[in-house]
Automatic annotation (TrEMBL):
Annotated Low complexity bias: 446-455, 555-564
Name this protein carries in UniProt: Eukaryotic translation initiation factor 2A
Organism for this UniProt entry: Coccomyxa subellipsoidea
Family recorded in the similarity comment: Belongs to the WD repeat EIF2A family.
Annotated ranges, domain Translation initiation factor beta propellor-like: 228-422
Keyword Magnesium: no
Amino acid sequence: MPAEGMQNDLPAQLLTVRIPDVASIVSLARNKEPLALQTTKISKVPAGSISWSQDGAYLGAISPNKVTIYDGKNQQQVAALDLPSVVAVSFSPKNTYLNTFQRPPQGSGNAEKNLKVWDWRKGTIVMQLFQKSFSRDHWPAVAFTPDETSALHLVTNAVNVYNPQNFSQGVAKKLAVKGLAGFAVSPNASAPLLAAYVPEGKGAPGFVGIWDLNQLSKGDSPAPIARRSFFRANAAQLLWNFKGTALLALTSSDTDATNQSYYGEQKLNYLSADGKNDCIVQLKEGPVHDVQWSPSGEHFITVAGFMPAKSTVFTEACKPFFDLGSGGHNLVRWNPQGRFVAVAGFGNLPGDILFFDKKADGKLKQMGATRADNAVSLEWSPDGRTVLTATTAPRLRVDNGFQIYKYTGEKLLEQKVEVLLEARWQPAPPDTFPDRPQSPRANGSAPAPTAAAKPSGYVLPHLRGSAGASSSGNFSLGHDPNDSRGRIGVNAHHKSLVPGAVAPDTKTASKNAKRRQRAKGKGGEDGQASEDSSQPAGQVKSVTEGVSALTTTEPQAQDDAGADPAKRLRNLQKKLRQVQQLKDKHTAGAVLEPEQLQKIASEAALLQDIKLLEGQT
């Protein structure tokens, strides 16, 4: 961990706060308790919207008919472009070019070239095209490779590729595929890849393909390196990992074929860039709320399923690796260093946030928890030590403001704003802030974080506020009582569980193993007593181990140890019926969770214990 003096040498972290028609940049005051804000030189900038460059070096502020560019270090104006009806701006990866989109005048047709690429330092237009409409999901409309050697633009049935060194020569090469609806360029500059998506239509499935950008030409397009087809998908979000070795395609349809969701259906598909592996990511049944790659590209986390949603960590090869548990969550964010993770539930959820620390062996351990009431956004600071949450209009027009929380869940700052449209951090170049582990608790003066309140069970209206409320059941939309957290898999290769596989070790299973070992040692010391028992020692051991094994998924089975054989038999027969129901679901094609597969794997032990107990009753 850097010394205190080295930490003071790090650049200041800036916040951009936007209210109606005005944007402000403020910095966090250093070494002050409690945490405070200091306004910088840009205190009142007319801005309908703002856009930072990827490295935070420049800020583009949009006013009604003008784009003003400021230096991110000293907040001085460095350029201004007069643009009527400008809607959006975007910087290229190395800040050489600027994309702008202007709303076309009514009745102008395609004569008005409203999509422009600027050499903004010179104030000159290097390319201009017509684009009918603007979409946040497909912005920037002209995408550059990381080294800015190619610029790509989506048109009907093709992705046109331009040479930024000579835009005047027109299209240098293209990817021509009928029905193309979206594309994404990989972030690896040495061997750039192009992923493109075609929705289903006229009975034909939709698909996602990956092409080598260097192999394209003006002629016929080559076959994709990797391809995956699917039905029931009319939109897709393409997510590359940082290394450009794997792609996630989050597909969605407007309707749910199973009639279980009003919001349609989502599926997550995986493709390796070399074409050797493609599959659907096995998730809990229900919508895919969020997915994000780690900054290293070695893991991704999903939040999926009907509430309570399940959060799962996958490896780069799409193997389920770690179960973060279930809860009222719909958002996941890695910090820029890839060490800490925040899992939260915003929107129509209470605002609970869980913070996890990724250890060297890949396991994730919870550090803290908090609740950000009414928050609609969450973003890690560039140094990866705090998160910024905000309640903004027009999503919510009450309780607007923003908060800053430490990775332990401790609230460091809260600022109320009458009407807040946006609050976000200034980005920082990679490696600006070092990767630091948690601060030792012994050295910290801050109080321990207060964990988010555990969701209570549903209480019938006529019982609320009464003594009977506590006995009204344990149903909860925010918590799965059978949930389990921990590492997924049976060996170092993190193989996912399948019917018949050995269940992964858990804390409960470990305790049971120690208990059996102690019982075995005690039996050796007191062997005569065992031999004099009216029940065969082998039979007693088998029944005891069978009941203990079930505690890995059914903790209540421990209470049956002292029950009479007839009661234990009924309980085991009930569990066997549950196993059969799960097997029927799996045969029908349903995707089961690890704990459900674990129950199926216990069938043989259940049958053996039932047979032994039947001999006693």
